[in-house]
Amino acid sequence: MTLAPLSSAVFAELARTRPLPAGATALSAGLHTRRMVLFKALLARVERMDPVVRRRFDRDWNVLEQAERARPAAVRGVLDYPMTGAWLAANLAAPDGPAFERHLTHFGAVAATAAVRAGRQVTMAVEVPSGLLALPGLGVLRCPAGRARLEIRAGLLRVEGGGNLGGTLLHVPPGGRRPRGGGRGWSGLRDLPDDAVVLDDLDPYRVPTSGIGPAALPAAERRHAPHRSWAERWRGARRLLLATDPGRVAEISAVLRAVVPLGPGVRHGARQPMSATMRAAPGAVLTELPVSAEEMAEVLVHEAHHTKLAALQELVPLSEQGRGAVHRVGWRPDPRPIAGVLQGAYAHLALTDLWRRAGSGTDTPRSWRRRSTEQFEAYRDQVESALSILLESDELTFEGREFAREMGRHHASLGRCSRFLG
Predict the structure, then answer these.
(1) Around Cβ 378, how many Cβ atoms within 10 Å?
(2) Pick from 129, 170, 266, 336: CA 20 to 30 A from residue 14's CA?
(3) Helix 82-93 crosses helix 106-117 at what angle (to 10 degrees)?
């Protein structure tokens, strides 16, 4: 792979961690290309399966193809949804046999979601061995019978076989807005304020079964993810970022699709909330509930940059694969491979940039300005140390070294805390 999808100017701007519409557009295209490669890999694998499995998959594939021809942009939104990527990764990683086929049944829900988003007219049956029909980006329906019949017509979706005798009827308006209607057994995703990002506390693929982080935090169930609390943090974070660095708000809206609550976890003292981005599901922020709008703003900027770098590395490999060396970094107790050093340095450089602006911003609340000056000084030194590791490493590709050099130039431009403390 080469830099062909990216101009050198966009590549350099991405390394500087600053918001850039052209960069978000290029990364979105790269993410979609990667997603299509994975779907083709799935198709090739299914061709070796039992004829019954192949026929069911081919039927659903045809539904997906027809929907894509009708409204490609709407279908792309379904295919590129983060949890669609998480499902694809789980399905492709499963060994042949019952585990693979069980994951594969979810493809019917993906195809059905694409059809309803595209306004197609389709009647189809789907297997639901888990008893939970998950429509990516929309919600889930409990199907205790283990199967369901779907009738889709012009944005209307009727499901028979769910948790109610009369069926579930949803109207999915164009433009990506939330579905209206429902019925017993249906739970829809909820929007976060003033944005197209959703709070996804329902999709079965939103968190790996092994959990997230050293504490193996699970996905939070809806009863542990009060929408009001998440909406307040989200709204407060947007307000802070608009006052401090408005381009960050537009960038977050461009690169993120979902926030996935983790927990319930236990917070100790001033510890930051546990947050993560899955490589298979860029665009989804997995996090404990931040205790403040300031923490939420920092989590969003941090994880948005993990998404950006994950998408970039599908276009331009920045580090070599399979090398065993590990390195100490200031923000984690465990040594990291060079790819982890790059990911962490990139996200923390973005935070250092944010804290630089918050610390000197006249519209920044005093409490965040004070915190930002403290954080800036600590993380500036940690990022500087990580950049030294990167620039001395022989594990980066040529493009990776150029990326690290540009990160270093931006890091140097941020100056020292004493320059903006007043």
Answers:
(1) 15
(2) 336
(3) 150
Q: Which DSSP category does 49 fall into?
A: S
Could you give phi then psi for residue 147, rounded to 5 degrees?
A: -155, 165
Q: Which residues pair with 160 in a beta bridge?
A: 149
pLDDT computed for residue 420 by the predictor = 44
- Name residue 287's beta-bridge partners: 261, 275
R_g of the chain, CA atoms, integer Å: 22
Provide CB contacts within 8 A for 241, sequence distance 6+.
248, 249, 252, 297, 300, 301
Helix or strand or coil: residue 382? Answer: helix
| Burial degree of 227 (CB within 10 A; 0-12, 13-18, 19+) | middle
Block residue for tokens 């100017």: 9
Question: What would the two tokens of residue 6 be?
Answer: 């990216």
Between CA 263 and CA 218 the distance in angstroms is 6
If we measure between CA atoms, which residue out of 110, 127, 31, 106 comes closest to residue 65? 110
Q: Within 13 Å and on the Cβ side, how many CA atoms surround 167?
A: 12
Contact predicate 222/264, CB 8 Å: no
Across the chain, which has 422 residues, the per-10-residue mean pLDDT values are 66 94 91 94 94 95 96 95 98 96 97 94 93 94 89 87 63 74 86 92 96 91 94 96 94 96 65 88 96 96 97 91 81 90 97 92 85 90 95 94 97 72 40
C-alpha pair distances (Å), 28 with each of 32, 35, 203, 312: 6, 11, 22, 9
d(C-alpha 269, C-alpha 406), whole Å: 36
Tell me how far apart the alpha carbons of residues 252 and 364 are, in angstroms, rounded to a whole number. Answer: 19
DSSP state of 219: B
pLDDT of the residue at 162: 53
